[in-house]
Specification:
The complex is a heterodimer. Chain A is mainly α. Chain A contains 13 helices and two strands. Among the domains of chain A are: 88 residues; 111 residues, no CATH class. Classes of the chains: A mainly alpha, B mainly alpha.
């Protein structure tokens, strides 16, 4: 009886001992490779066509797996080889699943961290082209251009695309108008803000209140900017003719440079500074009056 | 009258063999091992879905359908390859063949029996996937549309496995059927990856001819459309059914022909 059990127990002990040894050696090997440079941990992703063939028709599943790996790999912020293969990985991922919205957004975000704008727009442009009904991607691109790069021409282009794809989104309409205002198209921007205001004029939902309040403020600011721009141009022309700034705004009207003395959106006169020839709005914007039903 | 009776008897024989094959295959260990793998794949999909950004539903659906399809095909191959050959090897076929029955009935019965098992297996796995999707509030009835197309793919693969099983050993059958599975899923890349690299127009024509003749299994894979709820083109499903039926018919005919000619003594 015992004779049979002893070899069996010995075999189990032997197996566990070998497994423990393998585990210990593996731990040692991990320790030894920990100091290797990042380049050592290189990887290879074949071309999109090859991955498509290898995925045996399950392109979306392959794209999901690659995307999860992409998140883990590029999330490691102090990796020196972080951006070397980013574009290729992104291309493969989005060729496998061109409708993978998060892939475009996250890749653009990872490229934005080191301010690689060329990648940001390349990634989002591909998504915009491949998904003609998607408004989120041009909106994202517009936000990068508007808030970070401060490239208002580019921002206006993207927000216009987003707005054409989803005209009902207040945030896109508002940002498009802001980008237009920033690049000097104040009258067009004003029309958009007025449209936005009228859209939410009778909407008492939190969203309606927000956009009514925001558009009222933007209408106010844009009207002031238009007056400032017109006065600045008139003052410059006046100075060319007379060699000095006008003493009052009424002089500009008499000279035929302004149709009337400009008034702020509340109907009050602007404060005119003769020394620099600029006007300033002295009336405070009253949000309660503008918004009405908070 | 006699002809009608013969047809009815033939149908009964096919039914009896199919029923027997179903019982036999459902007892097969490999069937349960592969089914366990498919369920494990679903669990893996759920775990992976927590690691992604955005839609969990998409990851579960993509990996779930891919897992179900892949492991169903593996079941079809590894159960199918032995269905005819092992009967001959174990000599159990000699209990059946002496009966007044055409050999073709044996092949057809075997095929439908295995398809019954695969269909049951597929339905069970789709039900599990649906429950998982329901739990994550991502259920869509399109899962069953995808299931229908997976069943068509299984019908072709099973016919290929049965064909090879009727002429070759299980190992060779497995290699050949797996090769056809891989070709079936990669042949759609011929026009983009292979044809541009071919020098002569004749080679290009041969490659394109092969592309149209070889089973195009990737065209039956609609799981990529299901994820984004893209509607299937009108008339596609009926053509897919016809395509599958014709492929199965030609493969079973070839299998019956080879098996009829085979010397089993």
């Amino acid at each position: 009886m015992m004779k049979g059990r002893v070899p069996g127990a010995l075999a189990v002990i032997l197996i566990f001992s070998i497994l423990a040894s393998i585990s210990a050696i593996h731990v040692e090997m991990r320790k030894l490779t920990a100091g290797y440079p990042d380049e050592y941990r290189s990887y290879y992703i074949p071309s999109s066509g090859q991955v498509k063939a290898f995925s045996l028709g399950y392109h979306n599943a392959a794209a999901d797996l690659l995307f999860i790996w992409f998140l883990q790999f590029y999330d490691w912020y102090n990796k020196s080889v972080r951006y070397d293969y980013m574009k290729h990985t992104f291309e493969v991922m989005t060729d496998l699943d061109p409708r993978h919205q998060e892939a475009y957004i996250i890749a653009a975000l990872f490229a934005f961290i080191p301010l690689k704008y060329e990648y940001v727009y390349d990634f989002l442009d591909k998504g915009i082209e491949k998904n003609p009904d998607n408004y989120v991607l041009p909106y994202e691109a517009g936000c990068y251009a508007f808030f970070s790069e401060k490239n208002y021409d580019r921002a206006a282009k993207y927000f216009k695309t987003a707005q054409d794809r989803n005209p009902d989104k207040g945030i896109i309409r508002s940002l498009y108008a802001k980008a237009l205002a920033k690049r000097g198209e104040l009258e067009v921007a004003l029309e958009y803000f007025q449209d936005l205001y009228s859209k939410y004029e009778n909407d008492d939902s939190p969203e309606g209140n927000y956009y009514r309040g925001a558009s009222a403020r933007y209408i106010w600011n844009t009207k002031v900017s238009i007056a400032e721009r017109d006065v600045a141009a008139a003052v410059a022309e006046y100075k060319t003719r007379r060699g000095r700034n006008p003493a009052t705004l009424a002089e500009l009207v008499r000279e035929g440079l302004l149709p009337a003395v400009p008034r702020d959106p509340a109907g009050n006169e602007y404060k005119y500074d003769r020394a620099d020839g600029k006007i300033a709005c002295v009336t405070n914007f009253d949000p309660k009056k503008a918004i009405g039903r908070w | 009258m006699a002809e009608r009776t013969a047809k009815f008897l033939s149908l009964l024989q096919v039914k009896a063999i199919a029923k027997n094959t179903f019982k036999e295959a459902i007892r097969s260990r490999i069937f349960y091992i592969l089914m366990a793998f498919a369920v494990a794949m679903l669990g893996f999909a759920v775990i992976l879905s927590f690691l992604t950004v955005g839609s969990q539903k998409r990851v579960i659906l993509d990996l779930g359908l891919a897992g179900i399809s892949f492991f169903s095909v593996m079941t079809s191959i590894f159960v199918g390859i032995g269905l005819i050959y092992l009967e001959v090897e174990k000599k159990t076929i000699y209990n059946v063949l002496p009966k007044p029955m055409p050999r073709a009935n044996f092949i057809i019965g075997r095929y439908f029996g295995l398809m019954g098992v695969l269909g049951t297996n597929l339905a069970a796995m789709l039900a599990i996937l649906s429950l998982v999707l329901l739990f994550f509030k991502g259920f869509t009835a399109s899962v069953f549309h995808a299931g229908m197309f997976i069943l068509m793919e299984l019908a072709i693969i099973t016919a290929i496995a049965i064909f090879f099983s009727s002429v070759a050993s299980p190992v060779l059958s497995a290699i050949c059927t797996l090769s056809f599975y891989i070709i079936g899923h990669t042949s759609s890349t011929f026009p983009d990856l292979l044809v541009p690299h071919l020098a002569s127009p004749v080679q290009k024509k041969i490659a394109m001819g092969l592309f149209h003749i070889l089973p195009d299994l990737s065209i039956l894979n609609i799981s990529n459309l299901i994820t984004y709820e893209i509607p299937i083109a009108g008339g596609f499903a009926s053509r897919a059914v016809l395509y599958t039926a014709l492929y199965v018919a030609v493969l079973l005919l070839a299998a019956c022909f080879c098996f009829r000619k085979r010397d089993l003594v």
